[in-house]
């Protein structure tokens, strides 16, 4: 077999059976190899940002990596923004990037660039296979790197001659790196802190946002009086009726500072201390009070659920201490004007149990939690790295990871335009996704920020860069142009009608919600 | 004033009065500064690939750089593919990339990444401004770098606090680096070569592809018997009736090798020796015969037109030696089936004098020259770096550089999908662009390459990655969804009717040519 076959076999042997792809000529031998492996599901994205964003969404829900297939430096470059988000989410992901044949590099052909240098900023692990014989063990090393907690982005560069040359190397097995457990001292320090009488914030992220460990965290909070909170943006959290009642750190710096002003100590559980998404003149970078003590129960790459269980035990929390769970009680459907709140209320009212909600609604989604704590239990996936254009692709990946579950995309219009090509993948793969476009026809968050800068009302040049009108985007036509059925709502009743129909149906549907 | 004002003033002072932008919060002070400068034309792209591709197209036609405005690492990453093309075209371009405030980096906020490392592979010059006082001289250095022949990509990173802090630094003037002229020895060597009786190829690129120097090159070829040829892909060439009859190096490796098999020596004029776009097993990387001598008359960054003039003089070529020019004689309009040849014939028949043709038609455009040598004189801009997604943005940039000239985009469907957001910019800026989509509904070039690999007929997985059908893209709806009028043609007569109407009208129009 050749190196390309060796790579495909290694992926399959190690449980990677989905490949999100946009190949080029230099990857044609790998395409031919995949063509010989019907066990591999190959999914085309019409732009590489779709490919990497889908791989991110897939792995968040499948708890295992997908592979991507990208074409040389520019193809990788197009996928970097969503790799950045994946990296911030702690997503396991294996990028396969084709390169020119090793002996062709001397010619500096038109598509040549420094792929390793491009990959490094957004990858935890980067390696170029030297030859066909090295491909399988390199791929296994990539998979191991991807599996390393909390989940890493591994980029394997495959020169064309490493793909097409023959090899009889064995197919390598990737290890599953153990997730390190925290030291007893960290548990003891947290116990002491929770008993020292200070106002404590328990900030819980990563795998500790799944339903089980969150209940443990909630019981700890209930027993000790600590406040429980999730980071502002998270790869995946389990929430809704019957699950822990949980809020997140607020995005806007002034509100966040006010909200956290009384915190005397924070205990981090697989989470980072909260900082401003951006810096603002005269405002602090950390969201915590200056004299707030910061303890780390578990680092991002450590076993947070285990640490919480041991902490609960060390605190001798009795069975009588219950987690604070959301009671069932989905909201009623809204009527009247179509606002972000009305959309949240409608989604909260109508979403089925087991739904997967992918949130890239930016400003429009800031109030989403208020209306959905008591909605049917669901997964909630967020934009973790701030690189817009993750939403539409990630819904595709989530739908592929979880057939039979309804996926709901909460999508800002400006962000949606970044990777709208994903809608075609929704259609081709007949994915069960309802996309809700919050059509406010501006980069609303930037209009806010311009005000914060003290620039007053935007003039012509600022409006030229912040508004999405003149002309308005017609999302119904855009969706239909890629084979996705779509409708437009301009009031809450119309939105509810469309959402009901979309949730009842199978396959992709897009609702342009004019707000 | 603050650093942002200083930057805007420096750009304007040095003749940069167009800024293609997609800003974010960290660039808001620069947006506010631009809002105070109505002399700057700010043009929004709904994705950064649109921004950089437009800046490339603009500078190719304006012969001076535009500025871009990009948001942090991910915003830059999204623009890298078209920076790669610009770098390969020898395009002058000044990227402004915002960054977090310097003191905010300690927090590793969600959007943080290594911007310099991301920029370096696709930039000739990269620098981060240390503070507001340094911004103007840094910007002038960036402009000088961009102006350095043959044109370079300069990336200036602007930390938010360098933008918002006050400065009283002077506004710096950027030098215009002289284009080095070639040494007399290079002229003498070329004279000797052209007189040694060998079969000679004169390969002419860069600024030597403008009408004047091309005539000199043609006269040299006519006088010496050398064969005149252009590289396969070029940033800009002036062609059509009354201009030099010129072919390009062939893209497909086998055809190129056959075409060049008799060449005994090549003289490079601001061009690189032709190499395979990709490597293929068992085929050479260079397109020249193994024993072909390679002489360089002028390097890419040297003054090719001057070198040609001096070479003609040194060869004592008399006034009686005329350049070989295309006679007027545009083709008639086609009828019958709609094929790439019919499209070329129709465009050749109907395009007005001074049209700007931007070619990203990939396989569909391989025969375009055949039908357009005698068309009205026009500029021809190509995909120079092979990173698809340059076409629709570059037409926008060209139209902004040259109001009053008709821009015609020859656009493959697969490539067009990469940056289709550019159509919205066509609509918002009311640009006079006719976009022709070659709707063959596949990555046709890759279907060819899969055959070359010897993989035979594509199976399910290969088709999943190479075909763009299931569902077909509806380009008419996609265009209308972004405010661009559009129509579909399925035969040559229908295409001619639509093209005539589009060329007669003003403003953007898209024709989906189903081939």
TrEMBL record, chains A, B:
<dbReference type="GO" id="GO:0050660">
    <property type="term" value="F:flavin adenine dinucleotide binding"/>
</dbReference>
<dbReference type="Pfam" id="PF02776">
    <property type="entry name" value="TPP_enzyme_N"/>
</dbReference>
<protein>
    <recommendedName>
        <fullName>Acetolactate synthase large subunit</fullName>
    </recommendedName>
</protein>
<feature type="domain" description="Thiamine pyrophosphate enzyme TPP-binding">
    <location>
        <begin position="374"/>
        <end position="512"/>
    </location>
</feature>
<dbReference type="Pfam" id="PF02775">
    <property type="entry name" value="TPP_enzyme_C"/>
</dbReference>
<dbReference type="GO" id="GO:0030976">
    <property type="term" value="F:thiamine pyrophosphate binding"/>
</dbReference>
<dbReference type="GO" id="GO:0044281">
    <property type="term" value="P:small molecule metabolic process"/>
</dbReference>
<feature type="domain" description="Thiamine pyrophosphate enzyme N-terminal TPP-binding">
    <location>
        <begin position="1"/>
        <end position="106"/>
    </location>
</feature>
<dbReference type="InterPro" id="IPR011766">
    <property type="entry name" value="TPP_enzyme_TPP-bd"/>
</dbReference>
<dbReference type="GO" id="GO:0003984">
    <property type="term" value="F:acetolactate synthase activity"/>
</dbReference>
<dbReference type="InterPro" id="IPR045229">
    <property type="entry name" value="TPP_enz"/>
</dbReference>
<comment type="similarity">
    <text>Belongs to the TPP enzyme family.</text>
</comment>
<keyword id="KW-0786">Thiamine pyrophosphate</keyword>
<dbReference type="InterPro" id="IPR012001">
    <property type="entry name" value="Thiamin_PyroP_enz_TPP-bd_dom"/>
</dbReference>
<dbReference type="InterPro" id="IPR029061">
    <property type="entry name" value="THDP-binding"/>
</dbReference>
């Amino acid at each position: 077999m050749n190196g390309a076959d060796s790579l495909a076999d290694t992926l399959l042997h190690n449980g990677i059976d989905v490949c999100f792809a946009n190949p080029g000529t230099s990857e044609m031998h790998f395409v031919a190899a995949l063509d010989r492996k019907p066990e591999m599901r190959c999914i085309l994205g019409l732009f590489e940002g779709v490919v990497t964003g889908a791989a991110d969404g897939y792995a968040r829900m499948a708890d295992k990596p997908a592979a991507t297939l990208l074409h040389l430096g520019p193809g990788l470059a197009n996928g970097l923004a969503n790799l950045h988000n994946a990296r911030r989410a702690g997503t396991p992901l294996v990028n396969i990037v084709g390169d020119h044949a090793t002996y062709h590099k001397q010619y500096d052909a038109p598509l040549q660039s420094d792929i390793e240098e491009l990959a490094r900023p957004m990858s935890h692990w980067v390696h170029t296979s030297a030859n066909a014989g090295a491909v399988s063990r390199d791929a296994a090393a990539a998979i191991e790197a991807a599996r390393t907690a909390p989940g890493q982005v591994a980029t394997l560069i495959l020169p064309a001659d490493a793909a097409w040359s023959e090899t009889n190397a064995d197919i390598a097995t990737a290890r599953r790196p153990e997730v390190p457990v925290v030291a007893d001292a960290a548990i003891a320090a947290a116990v002491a802190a929770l008993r020292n009488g200070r106002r404590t914030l328990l900030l819980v992220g990563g795998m500790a946002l799944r339903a089980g460990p969150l209940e443990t965290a909630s019981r700890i909070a209930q027993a000790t009086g600590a406040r429980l909170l999730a980071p502002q943006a998270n790869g995946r959290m389990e929430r809704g009726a019957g699950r822990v009642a949980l809020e997140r750190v607020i995005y806007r710096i002034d509100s966040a500072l006010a909200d956290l002003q009384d915190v005397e100590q924070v205990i981090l559980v697989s989470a980072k201390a909260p900082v401003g998404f951006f810096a603002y003149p005269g405002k602090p970078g950390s969201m915590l009070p200056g004299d707030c003590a910061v303890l780390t129960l578990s680092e991002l790459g450590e076993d947070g659920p285990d640490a919480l269980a041991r902490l609960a035990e060390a605190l001798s929390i009795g069975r009588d201490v219950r987690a604070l769970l959301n009671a069932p009680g989905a909201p009623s459907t809204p009527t009247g004007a179509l606002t972000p709140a009305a959309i949240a209320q409608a989604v909260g009212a109508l979403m089925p149990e087991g739904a997967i909600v992918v949130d890239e609604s930016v400003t429009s989604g800031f109030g989403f939690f208020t209306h959905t704590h008591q909605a049917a239990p669901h997964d909630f996936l967020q934009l973790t790295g701030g690189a817009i254009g993750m939403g539409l692709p990630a819904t595709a990946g989530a739908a592929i990871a979880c057939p039979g579950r309804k996926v709901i995309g909460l999508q800002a219009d400006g962000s949606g335009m970044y990777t709208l090509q994903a809608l075609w993948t929704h259609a081709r793969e007949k994915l069960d996704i309802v996309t809700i476009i919050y059509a406010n026809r501006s980069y609303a968050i930037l209009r806010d920020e311009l005000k914060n800068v003290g620039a007053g009302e935007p003039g012509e040049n600022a409006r030229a860069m912040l508004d999405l009108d003149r002309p308005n985007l017609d999302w119904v036509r855009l969706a239909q142009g890629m084979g996705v059925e779509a409708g437009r709502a301009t009031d809450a009743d119309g939105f509810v009608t469309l959402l009901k129909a979309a949730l009842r149906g199978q396959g992709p549907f897009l609702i342009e919600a004019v707000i």
